[in-house]
Amino acid sequence: MGPHSNAAANVDGSGASTAVVIPGESASDRFVRRLLRVDIDTSPENLVAARTALSESVVISGVRCLITYLLIPLAGAAGLLATIGRPISAVLCVLGIVFSVRSARRFWSTQNRHRWTYTVFAAVLIAYLSYGLTTDILYVIT
């Protein structure tokens, strides 16, 4: 946690930090923070990092869509990328998943008021990307 954190942490003799129950925080909020392995940190630096992570996630998703749905089919129609189109798509799916999780972690660490909305959006996106990744892998190995 940063120096400007709104939440304190208990530290036992082992030096491991355990999150404190925050007044008014729901059990589902605590569950998601544990799942994403984040503590609350509303320092100005973390708020900027959250915006940056979301921007990077959106850019990666846009580039992935552009390559997957425009460039690969066009190159495939021209006979290019026949062997590397699916592996490129798979790598882009993995990057999309990583950046979505990274953004969700930032939303939760900053207690963003839209964290639940983004979490649902990210979960749907991750499910879609996981399906795309699975189909890409199956196409490559068969």
SSE inventory with pairings:
Blueprint: E1 9-11, E2 17-19, H1 27-36, H2 44-77, H3 85-109, H4 115-141
Antiparallel strand pairs: 1-2
Description:
- With 142 residues, this protein is mainly α.
- It has helices at residues 27-36, 44-77, 85-109, 115-141; strands at residues 9-11, 17-19.
- Helix 2 (44-77) packs antiparallel against helix 3 (85-109).
- It has four helices and two strands.
- Strand 1 (9-11) and strand 2 (17-19) form a beta hairpin.
- 19% of the residues are buried.
- The radius of gyration is 19 Å and the shape is elongated.
- The termini are far apart.
What is the domain tally?
1
Order of helices and strands: EEHHHH
Measured between the Cα atoms of the first and last residue, the distance is 47 Å
Name the structural class: mainly alpha
Task: Give the neighbour order of strands across the main sheet.
Answer: 1-2
Low-confidence stretches: 1-18
Q: What is this entry, summarized?
A:
The chain is 68% helix and 4% strand. The protein contains four helices and two strands; from the N terminus they run E-E-H-H-H-H. Helix 2 packs antiparallel against helix 3 and helix 3 packs antiparallel against helix 4.
Keywords for this entry:
two-stranded antiparallel sheet, mainly alpha, 4 helices, single chain, disordered N terminus, 142 residues
